């Protein structure tokens, strides 16, 4: 009897240790995110149309941006070469301001199509406040060496639903990040596992909920790119301003 009890206890302990060593099963959301990460790692250059706007309590004062973006290469956390043709609608304005911002990896330039002015320099500060436009629209995950590792390693990942964006059926996944209590809701194509939408969610100092939304359409991860598109060209009738943009 004692021997049988000892054997039973021993086997129970072995089973308990085995269960402790086992890794918890990955959620469906994490499995999808790993496929997303692998798909994004294969991208070398990208072109897409994007719309960006604020949501929640900042919607009225954030404005709206619509642009065509092309970029390739990576230097730090910024694309090496990029082209962004955008229309920026500020709060209260009836018309959008048309600008083109770009870099060939050496020079940075801003074309103000409303004022017919051009700003160009090797210093990215030449772009002025409008230099923030491509920063807000470029989804750096397309070129990052570990594009969705932060999402995979986040505190929580949840598959919320599915939705269709630009004719593409997508998984909708909510991610709670490990740092700064950030949250985001991503939408990824079911067939190509590439991002089509990102909604960053955060709380304002007054406790209200706000967000920043980017929606991607006409995604092309195999674009034919001529390097000339990244180079500055002064359009006819435009003035080259020997100063930084405001």
Label this structure with key terms.
246 residues; alpha+beta; twelve-stranded mixed β-sheet
Describe the model.
The chain has 246 residues and is α+β, with helices and mostly antiparallel strands. It has 5 helices and 12 strands. The protein has a 12-stranded mixed β-sheet with strand order 7-8-9-10-11-1-2-3-4-5-6-12. It is globular. The chain starts with a helix and ends in a 6-residue tail after the last strand.
Count of beta strands: 12
Order of secondary-structure elements = HHEHEEEEEHHEEEEEE
The first-to-last residue Cα distance is 88 Å
Number of helices: 5
- Based on CA atoms alone, the radius of gyration comes out at 24 Å
Low-confidence segments, ≥5 residues, pLDDT <50? 1-18
State mean pLDDT (0 to 100 scale): 90
User: Helix content range of the residues, please?
Assistant: 10-25%
Query: How much strand?
Result: 35-45%
The profile of the biggest β sheet is: 12 strands, mixed
Overall outline? globular
